[in-house]
Amino acid sequence: MNILLVIDIQQKYLKSYKPTLVDRVNTRIEEALKKDIPVVYVKNIGISGKEEYFEFADELKIESDCIFTKRFPSAFTNEEFVEFLQKMDVEFINVVGVDGRCCVYRTVMNAIKRGYKVRLMMDAIEAHNDKFYFKELVAMEKAGAEVNSNLEELV
Question: To which H or E segment does residue 81 belong?
Fold first, then answer.
């Protein structure tokens, strides 16, 4: 099974990224829904674990109840998320979200290490620091992530 994983598209973080980010992520969500690809959301709740400070972006389309929280960068630090992937027999993870050089990077690397196939949907991923992000991008590619730079459709 394939999923679209939406990482940390939260109101608190939006000021650090281009104003069109949420629209681009929503486009990928709509595309996934048309192809019956489940949309899974992960949101950071920080070390404090206080969800009320970490709401999703107001404009983000929430199209499923598959919502997981995390207190650390990788989504794989949440055991419920890991169990969900196993239960749903997920093989391929299409990724959108922020930050490309931290939470996206760590989630992708953990996914690959656990045997998942990963595709980075580059039109809907952003990072605070492009200079460093490009280094992580190369590392993700070398590890086996497919980098979608031609804006291909979800698989």
Answer: helix 79-87
Quote the pTM value.
0.94
The residues, ordered by sequence, that sit 6+ positions from 48 with a Cβ below 8 Å of its Cβ are: none
**Domain count along the chain:** 1
43's enclosing H/E stretch is strand 39-44
Assess if residue 154 is contained within a domain.
no
Per-residue pLDDT of the chain (155 residues; tens, 9 = 90+): 999 999 999 998 888 889 999 999 999 999 999 999 999 999 999 877 677 778 999 999 999 999 999 999 999 999 999 999 999 999 999 999 999 889 999 999 999 999 999 999 999 999 987 776 788 999 999 999 999 865 566 66
Q: Contact, 112 vs 146, CB < 8 A? A: no
Give 48's Cβ-side CA count (13 Å radius). Answer: 5
155 belongs to a structural domain? no
Rounded distance between C-alpha atoms, residue 3 and residue 97, angstroms: 14
Laid out side by side, the sheet with 92-97 consists of: 67-70, 39-44, 2-7, 92-97, 117-125, 146-148
Domain housing 18: 2-148
